[in-house]
Structure formats: C-alpha cells, structure tokens
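Field log, afternoon session.

UNIT: design team B
ACTIVITY: writing a sequence onto a fixed backbone
BACKBONE:
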C-alpha cells in the first residue's frame, strides 16, 4: 500500500483511533479538532468488554463493571443479563488515552481548529466530527435521525453491578452506579427529553447536579465517494436501543482500516454489516416497547443478550 496523506476531521475517539492505526501503517495523518482540549464530557461511558479488544490500554480506566440492566415497565420489571459485561469508564479519559496513543504513533493533532472547508492536499479525508458533522453537510448528505441525551449526577455512592432504566416515549430514563456518585439521564425525542426527565425527577424527588446534554445520531450515512468518508457519530452509527456509539464506531473504524484507502469498499462492507442489524434492532425495540406497555405479561422476567448486537 502506498502511504497516504490523511486528514481526519474531529478528535473524538473514532478519529483518534484511526489516527493511531493509520499512522502505524505508515500514513501521514493530521487530526483537526475544533475544541481547545481533547475529551468528550457528555457521555455515560458504558462500553462492552469489546473496548478491551479494540483499545487494550483502556483496561486501566475501568471504574465499575455492569452485568445486567433492570427495565422498569409500568406493570413489570424485566432483568436482562449481558453475555459480555459492560465496563464503566470516563469517556474524557478514554479520549485522552487515544490521543496519547495517536501521538506516539506519529499522528499530528491540531487543536482549536474549526474546519470551515475541506482541507486541500490530502489523499483521503475522514469525517469523524460528530452528530453535526461538517464533512457530512459539505457533501450534501442527509442528516441521520437525532435524539437528545441529558445526564446529571447526585452525590450518592453506588457500586451496584447493574443499571436501571424506565422506558418513555421514544427512549428511556437511566440510572447508572458510578461508585462515587450516581448518574441519572434520559435519551428521547429532542422536543420531549427535558420535560420527560423533569417529570421523572419530580416524581422521584431527585435533584441533579452538573447536567450535560448532547445529540445522539442514528442511521447509516456514509458517502459514495472515492476519497472522502465518514465514521462513528458522523455516519450515524449508534445502537438503536441505547444510543451508544463508541464500540460501533470503533468497529466501523476497523473496517475502514482493513479496506484503506478504498473508501468505496469500506462503505460496501459497512453497509452489508450494519444496515440489516440497524433495521432488525429497530423492529425488536418497537416490539419490546409495545409488549412492555400493552401486554407486559408476555415478556419473560429474565433474558440474556449480547449488548452490542441485539440481532
């Protein structure tokens, strides 16, 4: 493979992971990050054990291990055990670990650089610039669907090995034990998320601190272009049921690395893998919500799933 000059727009986890691996392959990689510092703050930081296969160095960041989730429908609680446990980490720390690995591999990271046009002189441009991707807009591609995630914290220690959720219209409220504190949050339609979360908090007499919010994209938006592509949140690659996108984004990044610099082959392989899983997962989630609210007695009390892929 002839080494390429690569521009990665966005210094999040996917962009930094690609920067590391592409640099190790001998490519000249520059990451353009609009913020002054590396590190995503608005994220629950729950990743399946696959994160250790993708970024082995992340093991030192583990703060808690989650084995199951309780789903509280109005008239029935379902327990779901994970065949692969989930690991609680700080997304901020994970991003900075990935940045250090990328720098050590030889990648250049330029901070405080808001890209207003696609950089010239690069053989391949990769948009890893999040839900409101500039690269995606520049290519004239449609936006994925969006939900809004809001999180906050209470100073209540909790080292439980399970999370709790309460389904609401178009999403759910969650409770996550973060050992030294407890996190509550919601993912739902942007027009309803705040009011639904406030209703839950009032009913349960909970007052949150340090609230953060962010858009969560969902879909499959990858361009048919020979030298420009998208990965991670920019491509809408998040799980339809939970909104989690780190592992999906990193798996997409691995597909890009395998096919690099052939962005068209990357798109084809990515589409064949993710699109059926996205469609079938959406159907499964709608069915579960319908049964949970309308016919909860049909649902089993205990299930076991693979947390990254329902189907």
């Amino acid at each position: 493979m002839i080494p390429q000059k690569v521009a990665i727009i966005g210094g999040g986890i996917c962009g930094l992971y690609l920067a590391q691996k592409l640099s190790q392959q001998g490519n000249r990689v520059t990451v353009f990050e609009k913020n002054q510092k590396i590190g995503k703050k608005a994220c629950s930081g729950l990743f399946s054990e696959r994160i250790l296969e993708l970024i082995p160095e992340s093991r030192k960041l583990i703060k808690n291990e989650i084995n199951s989730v309780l789903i509280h429908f109005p008239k029935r609680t379902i327990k779901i055990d994970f065949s692969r446990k989930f690991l609680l980490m700080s997304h901020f720390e994970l991003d900075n670990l990935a940045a250090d690995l990328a720098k050590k591999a030889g990648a250049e990271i330029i901070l405080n650089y808001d890209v207003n046009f696609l950089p010239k002189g690069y053989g391949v441009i990769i948009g890893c610039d999040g839900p409101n991707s500039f690269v995606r807009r520049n290519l004239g591609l449609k936006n994925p669907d969006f939900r809004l995630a809001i999180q906050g914290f209470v100073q209540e220690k909790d080292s439980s090995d399970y999370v709790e959720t309460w389904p609401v219209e178009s999403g759910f409220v969650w409770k996550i034990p973060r050992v030294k504190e407890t996190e509550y949050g919601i993912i739902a339609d942007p027009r309803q998320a705040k009011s639904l979360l406030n209703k839950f908090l009032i009913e349960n007499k909970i007052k949150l601190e340090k609230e953060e919010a962010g858009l969560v994209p969902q879909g499959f938006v990858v361009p048919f272009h020979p030298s420009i592509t998208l990965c991670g949140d920019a491509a809408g690659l998040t799980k339809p049921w939970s909104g989690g996108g780190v592992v999906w984004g990193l798996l997409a990044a691995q597909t890009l690395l395998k096919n690099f610099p052939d962005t068209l082959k990357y798109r084809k392989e990515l589409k064949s893998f993710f699109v059926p899983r996205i469609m079938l997962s959406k159907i499964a989630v709608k069915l579960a919500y319908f049964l949970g609210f309308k016919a909860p007695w049909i649902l089993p009390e205990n299930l076991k799933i693979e947390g990254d892929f329902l189907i």
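LOG NOTE: The first strand starts at residue 5 and ends at 9.
NEXT ACTIVITY: expression trials, pending approval
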